[in-house]
Amino acid sequence: MFGPVGLQEIIVILLVAFLVFGPKRLPEIGRSLGRGLREFKKNTTGLVDSISDELDKPVPRANQANPVPPQAPPTPAPTPQKLVNNPVTPQPSDQVEEVVINLDEEQKK
């Protein structure tokens, strides 16, 4: 939509500026516009240079600042113990209760 400005557009812009500002103020406005563009270019160049300088600096890594302490040596696996050949037999209890639970049809679901 706003492509490069052609010769006709520049002529129209200069004609409108001449009519609005007059022949006496037009050179003064041109000079101040030139100074402003020069200052803008100088500042953008300085900004680009400072950014590129910051990007060129080496970045300290996190692991260099705080080295990882050495780990403890791994412990050996425990040796298996002997199996006991005396099996435990359950003793009969003197008190045995029988519990009967009756469920309704709805509770079975």
Task: Describe the protein's architecture and organization.
This protein has three helices and no strands. With 109 residues, the chain is mostly helical. It is elongated, with a radius of gyration of 46 Å.
Task: Supply database-style keywords.
mainly alpha; transmembrane helix; 0% strand; 3 helices; single chain; elongated; 109 residues
Mean pLDDT: 79
**Share in β-strands:** under 5%
Approximately how much helix is present in the residues? 40-55%
> Which sequence of SSEs, written as H and E, runs from N to C?
HHH
Total strand segments: 0
Radius of gyration: 46 Å
User: Which structural class do you get from the secondary structure elements?
Assistant: mainly alpha
For the sheet with most strands, the description reads:
none
Q: What coarse outline follows from CA principal-axis ratios?
A: elongated
User: Would you identify the regions where 5 or more consecutive residues have pLDDT less than 50?
Assistant: none
Spatial gap, N to C terminus? 73 Å
Number of helical regions: 3
Q: What can be said about this structure in brief?
A:
This protein is an all-alpha fold. The chain has helices spanning 7-56, 62-65, 105-108.
Topology:
Blueprint: H1 7-56, H2 62-65, H3 105-108
